[in-house]
TrEMBL record:
UniProt KW keywords: Cell membrane, Membrane, Transmembrane, Transmembrane helix
Subcellular compartments: Cell membrane
Species for this entry: Pseudomonas fluorescens
PANTHER family xrefs: ARGININE EXPORTER PROTEIN ARGO (PTHR30086), ARGININE EXPORTER PROTEIN ARGO-RELATED (PTHR30086:SF20)
Alphabetized Pfam families for the sequence: LysE
GO process terms (BP): cysteine export across plasma membrane
Domain of life: Bacteria
Annotated GO CC locations: plasma membrane
Entry protein name: Cysteine/O-acetylserine efflux protein
Gene designation: eamB_3
Its membrane topology: Multi-pass membrane protein
GO molecular function: amino acid transmembrane transporter activity
Bilayer-spanning residue ranges: 6-26, 33-51, 63-80, 142-166, 178-199
């Protein structure tokens, strides 16, 4: 139980993945972003399986700063996509429309989760400490990993659904533009913290 409580508290906290999902919901792309949620879940499944069976042999703590650097760059790219997105409100009671190229995809979700140090920091304590302490081994690791991955993919889905509920109450394009700008800036802040982790590593070496 403590494994799922820990994973839930971290996965459902604000971060780049959940910010992207929230923005998708606000701008009427909840249904078109289902692939994004699946991508996030698949990325977590890969990480849990890899670390669950190999420990830290695949990615050591020393590699995290470099993952932060790459993840920060990718997050900045997504921040630009969100910040420059335009939303058109077709009419009262209709969902806002966003350009098709702005729709979040499976690979958007997979890459941002794999390159998100927060995701890796969720996985490492669970696979290296909690699973052995709970005597979870063999095929049980795969089962627990699948359940955690489903929960992880549900986190952006919840954020996006909340955004969709709120977005249906908004009928002016100006507010969607403001939301896009705010979410874009929030992603820039997330990227900054990733770059900061890399900077601290460089300073320490």
């Amino acid at each position: 139980m403590d494994i799922f409580l820990y994973a839930f508290s971290v996965m459902y906290s604000p971060g780049p993945v959940n910010f992207m999902a929230l923005n998708a919901g606000l701008t009427g792309r909840f249904r078109r972003s289902l692939g994004f949620f699946v991508g996030v879940g698949c990325a977590l499944l890969v990480l849990f399986i890899l670390f669950g069976y190999t420990g830290e042999a695949i990615i050591s703590q020393g590699a995290l700063p470099y993952i932060s650097l790459v993840g920060g760059l990718y997050t900045l790219y997504l921040a630009y996509q969100v910040y420059t997105a335009t939303t058109v409100v077709p009419g009262e009671g209709s969902e806002p429309a966003v350009a098709a190229q702005k729709t979040l995809t499976f690979w958007n979700g997979f890459l941002i989760q794999v390159l998100n140090p927060k995701g890796i920091m969720v996985v490492l304590p669970i696979t290296s400490i909690m699973l052995p302490a709970a005597h979870i081994t063999g095929s049980s690791i795969a089962i627990v990993s699948a359940l955690l991955a489903i929960a992880g993919g549900g986190a952006p889905g919840v954020y996006s659904l909340l955004g969709a509920i709120l977005g249906r109450r908004i009928t002016r394009e100006f507010y969607f533009t403001v939301f896009n700008r705010l979410m874009g800036l929030a992603l820039v802040v997330c990227a900054f913290f990733m770059f900061h982790a890399f900077y601290l590593h460089v300073q320490a070496t």
